[in-house]
Structures are given as C-alpha cells and as structure tokens.
Amino acid sequence: MTTTRSVVLGYGAYLPERIVTNAELTKTVDTSDEWIVQRTGIRQRHIAADGEYTSHLGIKAAQAAIANAGIDAQSIDLIVLATSTPDNTFPATAVQIQEALGIHHGAAFDVQAVCSGFIFALATADNFLKSGAFKRALVIGAETFSRILDWNDRTTCVLFGDGAGAVVLDAQQQPGSSADRGVLTTHLRSDGRHKDKLFVDGGPSTTQTAGHLRMEGREVFKHAVGMITDVIVDAFNATGTTADDIDWLVPHQANKRIIDASAKKLHIAPEKVVLTVDEHGNTSAASIPLALAVAAADGRIKKGDLVMLEAMGGGFTWGSALLRW
Ligand code: ACO
Predict the structure, then answer these.
(1) In order of start, what are the domains of the chain with their CATH numbers?
(2) What is the pTM of this model?
C-alpha cells in the first residue's frame, strides 16, 4: 500500500547584507571574540537593515526555494511561516509573503514555537499534505531577532542574528517504508514549566510593546541536550533507523557546544553534522533551513540521503523531523 510523503522539491535561504562581527560587538558591550567563540562557536551575525522586515527576508528565501524547485509559485496552496518576530501583531507575516508571491488561493499562516518553529511548521505542513488537504507547501523560517534584543545585555545580544530559509514540500505517493523519499516522521514536544527561562518581556496583551529577549542561559543549556536527544531517539524508534543510518544531522544552530554534545551523546559522527552557527549566530526558526540550504547547495546533502533535523527553544519547545532528501 502506498503512502503520501512530503518530498522536498527545493530549498532557499537569505541573510541580510550587514554583517556584525564579534569584534564589532566589543565596541558596545563588555565581551570578547574569544569568549563568544569558545562558549558558542559564533563568529558573526547578519542584521536586517532599517526598513527590512521579517517578511522581506522570508520572501527572498521563498523565491529562492521556488526557483530551486523549478516550480510555478501558483502551484503552492499552503504557506506555513515559523517566526517569533512577525512584521505586525496581525495579520500573519505568512500572508504578507503569500501576497508578495502573487498567490491568492490556499492558506497561509504563522506558527510560533520560537527556535523549534521550523520543526513545528514542517510537521504542520507535512500533516496537511498527508491528509490530502493541500498538495504543495512552502515552509519558511524567518526572523529579525535583532529587533527584540537588548543590545546592552551581553548575555543575550551576542548570541542571535537575522535570516530566513525555506523549503518547498510536495505531496507524493511513496511505497511506504523508511526507504521512501520525503518526511518519514516528526516529533513535537513542549513543557510550559520552563516558560520563564527564555522569554520576551513584552507583547500586545501585556505591555503593548514588542519587549526584549530574556534568558537564563545556563538553565537552557542544562535542558537542551537531553530534550534534543530524546526526540531524535523518538524518530529513530518510529522508523526503525539508528544513528548509523543518518547521513546528515542538521540541528538548530544555537550553539556549537549544544550541537556537539547532542551528536556525541547519540554517537553521530562529527563529520555528519552540518554547522553554520559560526556564520550567522542563532537565527531561531530560520536556522535549520539556512543550514539545509548551505549543505544542499555545496553538494553534501544529496538525493536519497537520510537527514535528521532537530531543535529546542523557548517554552520550552523541542522537536525532530527525519526525512529522506
Ligand atoms: N562576554 C563575556 N562574558 C560574558 C558574556 C559575554 N557575552 N556573557 C556572559 N558573560 C559572563 C557572565 O557574566 C559570567 O561572569 P561571572 O562569572 O563574572 O558572573 C560568565 O561569563 C559566565 O557566565 P555563564 O552564563 O555561566 O556562562 P556559560 O558558560 O553558561 O555560557 C551561554 C553562557 C553561552 C549563554 C551558555 O549558557 C549557553 O550556551 N546557553 C544556552 C543558551 C542558548 O543557546 N540559547 C539560545 C536559545 S535556546 C536554543 O536555541 C537552544
């Protein structure tokens, strides 16, 4: 019996032009390149220009993904955007992107799960495609975290950056085994007991301002590796696969130490891990599709490769997705 799978047809990414190096940050906060690189692996981040919004980054990533897929944008009937930094409180930034792409049919909406947003958006789109409700989805992660950072707080401002990435998913019939192409399994989790460890201290209903990101970094670190490895093991168990079967681990790019520790715990070889955090810092929901785009463009991720995606972030939320490219 065949089954419907969400197959990646194309990918795209966009980083704003302006690069802020660690050295540049030392001019405004008491930090050093050495401290940032050693604790996080981050060397630079991209920052959106004045008047450049999350939707603008998302549109560029979406256009690149559509071009890479070689499809007509009109064939897309679902747009799911993962973001915690929407242009406006409403409408959904996904609708701004839908309009810019000239798509006036189907549905477009935002998903908010902070750094896990891309996994949540991918799982949402995958389930809609599997149900038959939609045929072709654009899944985007786009963020302008620079707008919610307290640039005087060295414990947070050095960690994040702006960017966007996207994939086109196509509903296709596959034989129905773990050898299928497409999304094989997704696992989403959240636990609001941790909501005060990483949050933004503003919002429309509370302060009527966007607010600033606040984080207990050590607490996040303490929980990250266990949560990430749990959902990856869930994905292995659901598909009968093991760490040896994985061609690539494409993690949320928050912090090299978290990524290294998770890969080590799972016995995933370091050369199978895609790392881009040095180039753009933590871009929250955008980081996984940004990393996917780099590794697919440079020829590492090839058709038929087994790719594990994982993320953990504010809420806490965490999740994994296993797919065959
Ligand atoms: N430059 C220099 N010194 C700093 C900086 C900085 N940018 N930031 C903090 N410090 C200082 C602290 O003030 C502290 O000084 P003290 O000992 O005199 O008090 C010292 O460095 C150690 O601070 P810690 O917070 O204990 O440093 P730690 O080793 O835990 O590293 C970090 C901090 C990098 C934030 C780490 O906890 C971490 O990686 N946490 C995970 C956070 C994360 O990745 N969040 C992203 C969002 S969630 C996600 O995407 C998974």
Answers:
(1) 3-174 (3.40.47.10), 182-324 (3.40.47.10)
(2) 0.97
